[in-house]
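INFO batch 0412 | record 1 of 1 | parsing
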Amino acid sequence: MKPLDGVVVLDLTRFLAGPYCTLLLAGLGAEVIRVEPPGGDAYRERPPFGGPKGTSLTRQTDDDVGMTVLSRWRGKKSITLNLRSPAGIELFRKLVAHTDVVVENFLPGTLEKMGLAHRVLDGINPRVILCSISGFGQTGPYREWRAFDPIVQAMSGVSSVTGYPDKPPVRCGAAISDTSASLYGVIGVLSALRARERSGRGEWVDVSMLDGTFFLLAEVLEYVSGGVNPERRGNGHQGSVPFNVYRARDGWVSLCAVTSGEWLHLLEAFGRPELANEPRFHPSPGSRHAHREEIDALVQDWVGQRTVDEAIETLQEHHVPAGPVRDLREVFDDAHMRERRMVVGLEHPTHGPVPGALAAGMPIKFLNHPAAFDAPAPALGAHNADVYGRMLGLGPAELEKLAADGVI
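INFO prediction complete | emitting tokens
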């Protein structure tokens, strides 16, 4: 039994932040029912594609599906429902009566315009939990602003401390504002489910991408509060030295010696423990910070004489945090990641494994409960009969009429 077995989630999400939230809920065992328009979500038609012949930027067969769908909709069910029609809204309200959680990431106010505001859902089912993920939250001056991940990274302050001092601010290479919002959404839903066990009441979880990204700044905020003006240092760190990437003979090594003990271990790895007695290489953080350039040059000289593997092996043997800088293809092939099931194959809804298609596995592991994305993304409307029949008692004839009327 998975941790969230028995929890029913209606998924109204799109893009990345919302679908990644419901992907995790599905991996934890919730029955996630994705609500799509009768014509299907636009991401089903968006490249790159995956199908029986593999992956490609263009369709190779009529059955090819967007890789976004194959990855982000794993473990979910699909029903079709026209939420632009009064009959579709009424059908959705009936589904809410049998639901634990509704997740959406529309612009704030959209659900209210649809007649599905939180107070309406609460009136239908006082136990329902609504999780709303948006760029700037349900309140505040920016409430109605449009946003994607780069906008939020810029407005949160992340871009101002990312990059090099002589270059423009840049965004992080990963969509951290979107994906961290997914995590906050899951945390909010789980907390609301726990609170409901005591109160019997549902909740409205308000997740803002801006709030969450600002929260990620952690130690940067501590430096600002301490009177230090953070600056872009590339791969360097405001306070810790050495903390950088260094070129080896065949690649790059990431190395961080934060504590005084780690610095002494590093000098031992270099075979130069006596350097700790020199003022410029004293192990105190303040001294190392003051001699950043000399220390970086010392580390670079040592790393540059070795291969990546040679450097990493020696550093780890001396308890110095270090690792190789890998591209994503190398990560896909990494034995550790595969053993932990963090690199998994993707399947087509009807054709099985898609040649060459890989994705991230479930990042949360349990000792006594399984948790995995162990079912492929669903075909469009594949679960209409199951969901509408089981939850609302609708039979084949009724579903045929709803389909003919453009409701599902």
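INFO post-check: The CA atoms of residues 135 and 147 lie 6 Å apart.
INFO record closed
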